Amino acid sequence: MVTVLDAGGRPLSHRDVIAEQRSHAFPFGNIGFDLVDLADEALADAESDPAASGSAGVARARLVRLAGQFLEVFNTATLPFYWSDFEPAPGSPDTARLRRAARWFAERGCRVKGHPLVWHTLAPDWLREAPIGEIEATVRARVRREVGDFAGLVRTWDTINEAVIMPVFRNEPHRNAITRLAWERGRIATVRLAFEEARAADPAATLVLNDFDMSTAYECLIEGVLEAGVRIDAIGLQSHMHQGYWGEERTLAVLERFSRYGLPLHLTETTLVSGHVMPPEIEDLNDYRIPSWPSTPEGEERQADEIVRHYRTLLAYPSVQAITYWGLSDEGAWLGAPAGLVRADGTPKPAYDALRDLVKGEWWLPPTRLRTDGAGRVEVRGFLGDYRLYDDGDGGAALLTITAPGRAETTLRLKGER
């Protein structure tokens, strides 16, 4: 319930006011990998010069269009910090480029997340043969550097990724450095060092333990980490549904199992394909490599239905505090799967429209006329987030933030131009 005062501090009695939503508090995320170059110096004028000629102009136009589609639905961007790509040679991190991208998103009202700090896949080859003590010291320094350099810009990190499989991971003749570290030091010690270094570098950051393994092995790891006194801020659950939609029953069962630790749940990597689903006998999704995996009209309708069902299930569950869809466009999608919400040619799929209609339609308060009572009180109902109230008569306005569910009392003074 809001008590609305005029510019002089008097109750605005029996007057019409307009309430409109400005932002969601809930993080609706997607990866921003495709848009990193939009903030790069070579394409810095993309938005001001979309008609530039040649291949650069085509690239600019594509990115500008994709950026608009991103910002229309999503308010959180995940940026890539895969170590082997981020630092291809020792001492040459891609910090400046990623900072430009982080600022680009932040200036447009997006939260920014980093993925991942410690992961065995895409570990740098130049660290492979180092002694284990040097590996640990280098990993610690890497975590401190990235979190410290991006403090205030990147507010959430997938601090360690897929630690369940980390000590035994092997897809090459010789183990990578991170797998060696986890094998020698153990999973819990490796998790501890990642979280301790990240926490020290930015105490305000949200630090996530992230995994694709939804088996009891992940539960055992979480229990061991918590019993060891490692403070984690959220449990990350990957849901790459290349082999088909989980369905409400399985999704709720997963949420129930992992919510029992009393920590927020982040659905960190969600995908739903709009073509044929991957055969069920494939154990490691990375093993499914085919020349072409097209999106189909039937698959796109199925994807649209499934994304609505999935997001409704997640948003209704109290422990779920963030959802990241893994890929806006089919172009360059992981495994070549048609899991994007936008086709490779830039046109939106039905799933994009369906999700937008939820986030900015059903779950969004458009400009709505409300009437104050004699004491200037009016009820504003909406999702958690930022709102703007203004008097349609004299133009005074004020900002309102709904921070928690349930009824709350606050007073706003309308002032300035609306």
TrEMBL record:
Enzyme Commission designation: 3.2.1.8
InterPro entries recorded: GH, GH10, GH10_dom
Catalytic activity entry: Endohydrolysis of (1->4)-beta-D-xylosidic linkages in xylans
Gene Ontology molecular function, alphabetical: endo-1,4-beta-xylanase activity
One Gene Ontology biological process: xylan catabolic process
Record keywords: Carbohydrate metabolism, Glycosidase, Hydrolase, Polysaccharide degradation, Signal, Xylan degradation
Signal sequence annotation: none
UniProt key word Signal: yes
A Pfam cross-reference name: Glyco_hydro_10
Residue ranges of domain GH10 in the record: 60-358
Domain of life: Bacteria
Sequence similarity: Belongs to the glycosyl hydrolase 10 (cellulase F) family.
Protein's recorded name: Beta-xylanase
Source organism of the structure: Actinoplanes cyaneus
